[in-house]
Design brief:
By secondary structure, this protein is mainly alpha-helical. 72% of the residues lie in helices and 2% in strands. A two-stranded antiparallel ribbon has the order 1-2. A hairpin with a 2-residue loop joins strand 1 and strand 2. Helix 5 runs antiparallel to helix 8 and helix 11 packs antiparallel against helix 12.
Length: 325
């Protein structure tokens, strides 16, 4: 009887304190949190139970009836824990910060590309393939795969072909868009592991990293290849094997090194599911076959990349130290 009287007095003190702060908000660890409904209902429940105003069938569970304040403190601590580790910034602020990062990165890349008027050495070979694809509908032989020239062909088809800068500008348009998209894809890759705020910070670092800005203003394939790998990873994480394989196949057409990433994720899928990932392998091979046939027809040898065949032919034509000359 004395213990029940003591417990009732404590809960009446808590009720008085909650009335003092307007029964609406309570400060937990310097964070204002709405007072939950169960807080008031539990106080009233125990007060009425201890005063004998409720029938026994509505009494709390034995554990709560024995130690009601312990149950209340446990739930309050749980509420405090979630409040402490949740982001204190509203979701609209985080979305606004992400949009600002994207717009600032896009503006920076447009400005950098507008001041670049010189193609790179490798870029000239890429752009030659683009020109042949758009004007003649044929793919010329090159030591570089046709994936990136096919991407550049999309904006080049809408530009004035008589403009000598059209090919370079088409590659810059593609790279500016892909260079802005790449940090956003990286954000979605990082968010399940780092949370929203740290992922936004990583997105900002990638957006304004000088080397990424340089690759976003020129005519090379780095940005398209990186976006293809990140997109494949996101789809693979959602267990969408066929779209993952198709994007990996196109990534191979940009850079054959994509086979290493595809093989790694395919091995992980195999070990997880205890069965070979045919749904991930077959669509990728179907995308690769036309280019493999093209290499065979052009060189008479089978290889996964035209660069290896080109180097082999050069070594045969210039054996030994003459190759360096």
């Amino acid at each position: 009887r004395q213990r029940q009287m003591c417990i009732r007095d404590r809960f009446m003190a808590v009720e008085t304190a909650s009335n003092t702060i307007n029964m609406n908000r309570i400060r937990l660890n310097e964070v204002m949190v709405p007072l939950p409904d169960w807080f008031h209902s539990k106080i009233l429940l125990h007060n009425r139970t201890m005063s004998g105003n409720l029938p026994s069938k509505t009494s709390p569970s034995p554990a709560v009836a024995k130690w009601p304040r312990a149950g209340y403190l446990r739930e309050t601590m749980t509420q405090t824990h979630h409040t402490r580790y949740q982001s204190t910034l509203p979701r609209s602020y985080l979305i606004g910060a992400g949009v600002l990062i994207l717009l600032a990165g896009l503006g920076l890349r447009i400005w950098a590309a507008s001041h670049n008027e010189f193609p790179t050495v490798d870029g000239a070979l890429y752009l030659d393939q683009t020109h042949e694809l758009v004007t003649d509908g044929t793919l010329p032989w090159s030591c570089f795969p046709p994936g990136w020239p096919a991407v550049v062909a999309a904006p080049y088809a809408f530009l004035d072909k008589s403009d000598p800068m059209a090919l370079l500008r088409a590659s810059q348009v593609a790279n500016v868009i892909l260079g802005t998209l790449m940090p956003l894809l990286a954000f979605f890759v990082m968010r399940p592991y780092l949370g929203t705020r740290l992922s936004l910070l990583g997105m900002a670092v990638l957006m304004f990293l000088p080397l990424n800005v340089v690759y976003s203003k020129n005519d090379l394939s780095e940005m398209s290849f990186t976006c293809a790998l990140l997109g494949s990873w996101l789809l693979w994480r959602k267990d969408k094997q066929v779209p993952t394989a198709l994007i990996f196949g196109f990534a191979y057409l940009i850079r054959p090194e994509a086979l290493l990433a595809a093989g790694g994720l395919g091995l992980v899928s195999w070990l997880r599911g205890r069965r070979f990932p045919w749904r991930m392998l077959l669509p990728m091979v179907l995308v690769m076959i036309p280019y493999l046939v093209f290499i065979k027809v052009q060189t008479g040898a089978f290889d996964l990349t035209s660069k290896t065949v080109a180097v082999s032919l050069s070594l045969e034509a210039h054996p030994g130290w003459s190759y360096l000359g």
